[in-house]
Amino acid sequence: MLTKTSINAIQALMYIAQRPGDAPVSPLEIAKHLGASPTYLGKIHTQLAKADLLKAHRGAHGGVTLGRSPVNITLLDIVEACQGKVLGDYCAHHGDLSEVCAFHEAMHRLQEAILSVLSGWTLEMLLARPGPAKRLLGKVNCFMQCTLPEKRHK
After folding, report:
1. Overall pTM > 0.85
2. How far, in Å, CA of 137 to CA of 117, rounded?
């Protein structure tokens, strides 16, 4: 459902948000910590910056910071920055759903559900539980575990 790009974007934003202080974070540091290609992550950072989810800072102490507070960044913002608008793929009719085929109605409801869930979750909510319970560490394949500071997931 979500592309690798969207998952990596969420990971990068979570990593940045969990860093102490407001200093910009080096894209190379983020890439190393997440185990991602610096070039690929650079392209993701460009997409996130265009959507005002990241701010780029130039200079010797440059890097990236969040473009907004985590409470104001939704999963929908991140996914649309990386994948484009979430659009339903069904018959072209915008009237009463009782007049269209059942497939059209099902896809319309699916799109509404996806938009509702993605817009209802913020980066702040993800940060409240950024990884699995300690008893599950090493036992589950958690996509967000790589965002945890080193001392928390050893």
Report:
1. yes
2. 26
